[in-house]
Give the backbone structure.
Amino acid sequence: MADVIAMAQGVKAAAAGISVWVPVISAGAGILGALGSQWLSHIFITRREKRASEEKLNRERYYIGTELVFLLERYSVAWMSLGSLRVQELSEMDKIPSLDLSQVKGDWRSLSSHLIFRIRAFETNMTVLSSRIQAGKFNDYLPVSLPLTYDCLKTGIQAFILAAKIRREAGLPDSVHLLSEQGILDTLRGLRKKYWKRIVLESKHGKETMQNFPQIPDGIKGGIQS
């Protein structure tokens, strides 16, 4: 009988000890649950904000990419008028193609740093070309005008290739003129090849002309040097 009473008292004591820890355990579980829910909420909010930021960046990139692409491609097409003319003739008619990228609206930071560098480098090269055109505006000397015309065509090609790179980064479809045998790029390359052949022929002709000049006799050369 004494053993039964002792066991009952032990059970009561254990129950009392457990009842003391129940509020503590409940409070700890509540705290852990609150912290866990806050952590999950923070993750979901961060992911949502990141997704919204990426979507905004993609929209900005698509917008500014569209602006840049068509400006550059129109600039390329304008140089196709050199098919039967030289740059001096275009200059006399005030039909030299121009390109002002400052009018492009949108967030430039949405583009990759590498692409921004390529665009700014192209602007610099274009400015140098414009200066050369102005300097040779009234110069119809073939060894000057033919290489200048060749470089103008090369600039048109570079503009079209740059537009293609922007298309791909902005998620725009490729131009049908990029790989077509009758497209803008192929036409510009054909014109550049034609002018390069003319440059080579003029160079050979110039050397032949110099070789056909009458040679100065040695005695006269000595008199000139003295």
About this structure: The helical segments are 2-78, 87-92, 113-135, 142-170, 184-212, 218-225. The chain has six helices and no strands. The chain has a mean pLDDT of 77. The radius of gyration is 38 Å.
